[in-house]
């Protein structure tokens, strides 16, 4: 059949004589190299397909050809002979004779979802062979071909002369919509299915905590409109070779021994099976296993506890696997999330699961913590031994539904998962943010890693992710990278963030201060100003139309704040340059302007918020950008006194009224160690304090506090010249946890600076990542 314009043959373009490097392909293929010169896309293209060709792969192939220069696409039988010189694309099983011949020895992986691809341009027939080991392999071959289109010198299109042999390293790859807070909308989920197809992710687990029919109302059938919505989502998932996995979480109220509850659970699964779902999960996370929900469970399993809870869960899961999953042909093995999901400690609970759970059931594990800073091969191997099978990782990144992520987008690359995990895991699904489009940067990397963990490069993948979001627009992609660097911090549930904040900006600022101290001030100012301008201009470039509209909407408040912080930084750099040039009046004007912009930036809020943390102050480059602005501000204020301010706390000694749990990792010395990856935390009292004794007496111009989620509702900054008698210098009542800047006006030298708590904002104590004291020593 013919798809497209009336029959005619467009002029045939000639391929370039010298082959350029192959374009990057994501996920990174297992093997890719040059097969020869590029194949020009002719005005008319033949696609050889038959009834063994995957319909979704064929549809995507035709769309890509038409988008890249083919005015007419004819789908023909494999034996069809067309006019000489036309591009022919062969799509189907790798074993099909015409595809096998066109692959010409290219290795066909003996692996599910694998494929081989070969582009030939220097033979009598200009052709592309796309051979899959199965239907998904065919689809993924087309997704690779999509990335091999390159522009010709005359503004046409060609296909890079590549030879690819490829397959996924992990069988399960994708996401779990498992966060607390506002679930994604139907339109957002449909877009996610298309995205997963593009990045060769094959798994989506539907498990939004705030869908009442998933958890609290699990016994109740979905209303008809919700069922129709799920049916449309399953259809879109299937079209992208994504396994829609339906999860029901009954653990908070189920009576494990009650046949009626088991029947209700299976009926819930059956309703979604009828819509086309063939994968199911029963998460039993975030529930209490020290009490029963019914007297029947006490009679059946005895007193509540770890072993008893595990046995009750095993009975339920084995029943579902053996009487529901196994009785529905084509249904994949049942998945489950254990109540003990985030450690490597053996227990009666894990021993029971290991001994009694049906071997077919897939067990999920989050790593060594709820949000693990890393996952190693040794840890994965230990987890698999604990549960008696290779585990399936529920990776809580880039999810931002917990307190430490308040006011944050998490846009760092997917990182710190060790190469080789494919030998120890069933797969990995990332738990995204409430913001689905902003989640794509990290999910893109997770898909890349799970496809080829040994070939994964976090930095290169992050760059490709921004290019994907920008539709290939170089300027917009560069702006996204500047913006994402400012949203790089990745908190954990522990004291140390998983990834640091703004590493590129931090590198540039550190270089600026080094150059400044070395006397190369004009050059240092010019270089930093260029980057500050790029920060200020990034939001407009991101909003310019090339970047996916959903990302722009997700990041709206953060883009507003970034523009203001960027402009404040440009003004501050210009203020320093003016003071350096001797124009004090202009310097003061620019300094005042920067302060005003900083105040505006600090006032930006996420409102309304999709996240459980609600209305919150937007965090942009915090701990890096604001620290530079404070230091520069102090330097200008103390210019004639010391030639510049410095963080005097770094050379001081910290002391505190208490330390939470007497834990060394939360000791007072961490409050002035120069790292936002460590913190001090107090005991649980309103009157707790932390102080820094300075190395020498100093005039103090400003104090900054980088709060963790356990911050103060009210506190005072106090100073002392002897460490005994204290003078209140400022009182603050911050509207939310974040970075506070407190400017002081006294000219009297002091030796000690203290944060004195007045009232806590949480039931915890006070927790401060870093306390900085800016000023000039007095000799």
What's this, in brief?
The protein has 779 residues and is of the alpha/beta class.
Report on the structure:
There is one protein chain. The chain has 779 residues and is of the alpha/beta class. 34% of the residues lie in helices and 21% in strands. It contains 20 helices and 30 strands. The strands form 5 sheets. Strands 22, 23, 24, 25, 26, 27, 28, 29 and 30 form a 9-stranded antiparallel β-sheet that branches. An 8-stranded mixed β-sheet has the order 1-5-4-6-8-7-11-2, with helices on both faces. An 8-stranded parallel β-barrel has the order 12-13-14-15-16-17-18-19, surrounded by 4 helices. Strand 26 and strand 27 form a beta hairpin. Helix 15 packs antiparallel against helix 17. The N terminus is likely disordered.
Topology:
Blueprint: E1 2-4, E2 31-34, E3 39-40, E4 44-48, H1 55-67, E5 72-76, E6 87-93, H2 97-103, E7 115-120, E8 127-132, H3 135-146, E9 149-151, E10 157-159, E11 162-166, E12 172-177, H4 186-198, E13 203-206, H5 224-239, E14 243-247, H6 259-273, E15 279-283, H7 295-301, H8 306-325, E16 335-337, H9 348-356, E17 362-365, H10 377-387, E18 391-395, E19 425-430, H11 440-451, H12 458-469, H13 474-486, H14 503-517, H15 521-542, H16 549-554, H17 556-580, H18 584-602, E20 605-606, E21 616-617, H19 625-637, H20 639-642, E22 646-647, E23 653-656, E24 680-681, E25 689-707, E26 712-720, E27 727-732, E28 739-743, E29 750-760, E30 767-777
Parallel strand pairs: 4-5, 4-6, 6-8, 12-13, 12-19, 13-14, 14-15, 15-16, 16-17, 17-18, 18-19
Antiparallel strand pairs: 1-5, 2-11, 3-10, 7-8, 7-11, 9-10, 20-21, 22-30, 23-25, 24-30, 25-28, 25-29, 25-30, 26-27, 26-29
Helix pairs in contact: 1-3, 4-5, 8-9, 11-12, 12-13, 13-15, 14-15, 15-17, 17-18, 17-19
């Amino acid at each position: 059949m013919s798809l497209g314009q009336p029959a005619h043959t467009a002029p045939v373009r000639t391929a370039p004589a010298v082959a350029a490097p192959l374009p990057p392909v994501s996920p990174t293929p297992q093997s890719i190299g040059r097969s020869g010169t590029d194949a020009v896309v002719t005005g008319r293209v033949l696609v050889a397909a038959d009834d063994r060709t995957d319909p979704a792969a064929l549809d995507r192939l035709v769309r890509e050809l038409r988008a890249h220069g083919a005015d007419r696409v004819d789908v023909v039988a494999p034996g069809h002979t067309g006019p000489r010189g036309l591009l022919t694309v062969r799509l189907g099983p790798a074993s099909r004779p015409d595809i096998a011949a066109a692959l010409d020895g290219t290795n066909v992986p003996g692996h599910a979802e694998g494929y081989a691809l070969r582009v030939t341009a220097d033979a009598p027939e200009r052709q592309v062979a796309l051979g899959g080991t199965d239907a998904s392999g065919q689809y993924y071959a087309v997704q690779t071909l999509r990335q091999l289109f390159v522009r010709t010198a005359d503004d046409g299109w060609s296909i890079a002369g590549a030879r690819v042999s490829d397959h996924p390293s992990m069988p399960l790859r994708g996401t779990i919509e498992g966060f607390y807070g506002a679930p994604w909308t139907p339109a957002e989920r449909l877009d996610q299915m298309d995205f997963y197809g593009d990045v060769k992710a094959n798994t989506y687990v539907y498990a939004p905590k705030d869908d009442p029919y998933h958890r609290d109302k699990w016994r109740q059938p979905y209303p008809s409109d919700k069922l129709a919505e799920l049916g449309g989502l399953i259809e879109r998932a299937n079209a992208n070779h994504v396994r829609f996995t339906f999860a029901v979480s009954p653990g908070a109220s189920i009576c494990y021994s009650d046949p009626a509850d088991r029947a209700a659970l299976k009926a819930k699964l059956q309703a979604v099976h009828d819509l086309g779902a063939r994968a199911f999960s029963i998460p039993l996370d975030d529930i209490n296993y020290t009490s029963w929900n019914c007297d029947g469970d006490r009679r059946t399993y005895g007193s509540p506890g770890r072993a008893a809870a595990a046995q009750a869960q095993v009975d339920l899961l084995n029943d579902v696997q053996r009487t529901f999953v196994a009785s529905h042909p084509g249904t994949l093995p049942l998945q489950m999330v254990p109540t003990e999901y985030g450690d490597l400690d053996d227990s009666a609970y894990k021993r029971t699961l290991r001994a009694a759970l049906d071997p077919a059931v897939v067990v999920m594990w989050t790593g060594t913590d709820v949000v693990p800073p890393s996952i190693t091969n040794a840890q994965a191997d230990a987890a698999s031994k604990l549960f008696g099978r290779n585990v399936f990782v529920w990776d809580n990144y880039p999810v931002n539904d917990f307190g430490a992520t308040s006011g944050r987008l998490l846009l760092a690359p997917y990182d710190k998962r060790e190469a080789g995990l494919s030998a120890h895991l069933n797969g990995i699904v990332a738990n995204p943010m409430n913001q689905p489009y902003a989640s794509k940067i990290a999910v893109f990397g997770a898909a890349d890693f799970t496809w080829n963990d040994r070939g994964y490069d976090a930095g290169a993948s992050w760059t490709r992710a921004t290019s994907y979001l920008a539709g290939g627009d170089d300027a917009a992609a560069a702006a996204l990278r500047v913006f994402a660097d400012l949203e790089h911090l990745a908190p954990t549930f522990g004291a140390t963030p998983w990834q640091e904040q703004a590493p590129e900006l931090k590198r540039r600022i550190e270089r600026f201060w080094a150059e400044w101290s070395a006397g190369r001030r004009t050059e240092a100012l010019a270089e930093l100003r260029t980057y500050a301008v790029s920060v200020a201009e990034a939001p407009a470039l991101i909003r310019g139309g090339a970047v996916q509209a959903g990302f722009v909407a997700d990041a709206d408040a953060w883009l507003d704040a970034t523009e203001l912080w960027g402009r404040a930084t440009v003004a501050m750099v210009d203020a320093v340059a003016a003071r350096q040039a001797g124009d004090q009046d202009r310097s003061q004007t620019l300094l005042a302007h920067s302060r005003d912009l900083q105040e505006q930036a600090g006032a930006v809020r996420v409102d309304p918020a999709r996240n459980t943390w609600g209305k919150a102050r937007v965090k942009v480059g915090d701990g890096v950008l604001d620290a530079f602005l404070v230091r520069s501000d102090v330097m200008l204020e103390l210019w004639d006194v010391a030639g510049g301010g410095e963080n005097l706390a770094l050379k001081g000694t910290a002391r505190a009224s208490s330390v939470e749990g007497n834990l060394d990792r939360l000791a007072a010395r961490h409050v002035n160690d120069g790292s936002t990856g460590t913190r001090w935390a107090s005991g649980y009292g309103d009157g707790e304090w932390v102080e820094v004794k300075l190395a020498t007496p100093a005039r103090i111009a400003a104090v900054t506090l980088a709060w963790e989620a356990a911050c103060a509702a009210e506190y005072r900054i106090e100073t002392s010249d002897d460490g005994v008698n204290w003078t209140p210098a400022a009182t603050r009542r911050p509207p939310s946890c974040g970075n506070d800047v407190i400017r002081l006006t006294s000219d009297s030298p002091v030796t000690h600076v203290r944060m004195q708590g007045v009232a806590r904002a949480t039931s915890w104590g006070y927790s401060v990542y870093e306390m900085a004291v800016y000023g000039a020593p007095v000799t």
